[in-house]
């Protein structure tokens, strides 16, 4: 896919060179994405060449094209590992759901999507509402060290929260009866529902969070640049097109966060 430029590449001025240095200190932009068995507006899948395919990968490529540098993908099994990699400077840019714990560790720009997490339960389950999960006997799987599992734990203080390293593992837990529900973004759960015949997605939500672009702390020029890039990618229709190309026609692009 050819990616248009929305923001001017950093100039050759001292400030422009400093911006490039913060965005891609190695000369290559190291971009983090999260892999899952099914593509969503956040999760990528791997193509036949082993490279990631999906919305976040395409946005990473568009950013690299605009900078005039190549891109090196860091593919993680969950967004917790992505946060660790970004905080330590192993990667330069990533997208991930936002919460206060992550804000203390990395710097966030705008969101491109707002997720609403709820629960997926088996068809033979007696659980019919989110409130039915908030009891000691209920086991709810979530992905380790993520915004969603932390939000789920706050919403269901009486339930037993079970950590999984990957989405696929969480779904196997539900399929095998080891947990009563899996907590994930509603749009993601819809991708897996058919694989667990009779399963139901619960009404309401456990928590919501924006999925935003992020950079390591103490890179203010990088943060300013990627923030402008993402706002322009939303305004231009690129994010909408990437959703549609991935078959995610019902997913809504987050509104602009630009100062008025």
3D structure, described in words:
The chain is of the alpha/beta class. Helix content is 33%, strand content 26%. It is built from nine helices and eleven strands. Strands 1, 2, 3, 4, 5, 6, 7, 8, 9, 10 and 11 form an eleven-stranded mixed sheet that branches. Strand 2 and strand 3 form a beta hairpin. Helix 1 packs across helix 8. The longest helix is centred in the C-terminal third of the chain and has 16 residues. The chain is elongated. The two termini are 32 Å apart. 47% of the residues are buried.
List keywords for this structure.
single chain, 260 residues, alpha/beta, eleven-stranded mixed sheet, 9 helices, 33% helix
Topology (SSEs and partners):
Layout lengths: L13 H10 L5 E7 L7 E4 L5 E2 L1 H13 L3 E6 L2 H9 L5 E5 L2 H4 L2 E16 L17 E5 L3 H9 L4 E5 L2 H9 L5 E5 H8 L6 E2 L5 E10 L3 H16 L2 H8 L15
Parallel strand pairs: 1-2, 1-4, 1-5, 7-8, 7-9
Antiparallel strand pairs: 2-3, 5-11, 6-9, 6-10, 6-11
In short:
With 260 residues, the chain is an alpha/beta fold. It has helices at residues 14-23, 55-67, 79-87, 100-103, 147-155, 167-175, 186-193, 220-235, 238-245; strands at residues 29-35, 43-46, 52-53, 71-76, 93-97, 106-121, 139-143, 160-164, 181-185, 200-201, 207-216.
């Amino acid at each position: 896919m050819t990616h248009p430029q929305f923001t001017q590449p950093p100039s050759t001025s001292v400030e422009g060179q400093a911006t490039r240095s913060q965005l891609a200190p190695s000369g290559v932009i190291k971009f983090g994405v999260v892999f899952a068995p099914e593509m969503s507006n956040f999760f990528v899948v791997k193509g036949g060449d082993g490279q990631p395919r999906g919305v976040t990968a395409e946005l990473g490529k568009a950013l690299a094209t605009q900078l005039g540098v190549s891109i090196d993908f860091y593919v993680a099994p969950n967004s917790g590992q992505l946060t660790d990699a970004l905080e330590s400077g192993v990667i330069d840019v990533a997208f991930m759901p936002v919460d206060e714990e992550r804000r203390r560790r990395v710097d966030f720009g705008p969101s491109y999507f707002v997720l609403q997490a709820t629960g997926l339960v088996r068809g033979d389950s007696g659980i019919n509402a989110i409130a039915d999960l908030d009891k000691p006997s209920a086991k709810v799987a979530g992905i380790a060290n993520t915004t969603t599992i932390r939000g789920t734990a706050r919403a269901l203080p009486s339930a037993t929260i079970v950590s999984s390293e990957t989405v696929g593992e969480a779904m196997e837990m539900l399929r095998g009866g080891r947990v009563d529900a899996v907590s994930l973004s509603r749009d993601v759960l819809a991708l897996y529902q058919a694989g667990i015949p009779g399963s139901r997605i619960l009404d309401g939500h456990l928590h919501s969070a924006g999925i935003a672009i992020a950079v390591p702390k103490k890179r203010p020029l990088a943060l300013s640049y990627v923030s402008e890039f993402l706002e322009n990618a939303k305004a231009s229709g690129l994010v909408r097109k990437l959703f549609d190309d991935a078959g995610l026609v019902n997913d809504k692009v987050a509104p602009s966060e630009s100062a008025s």
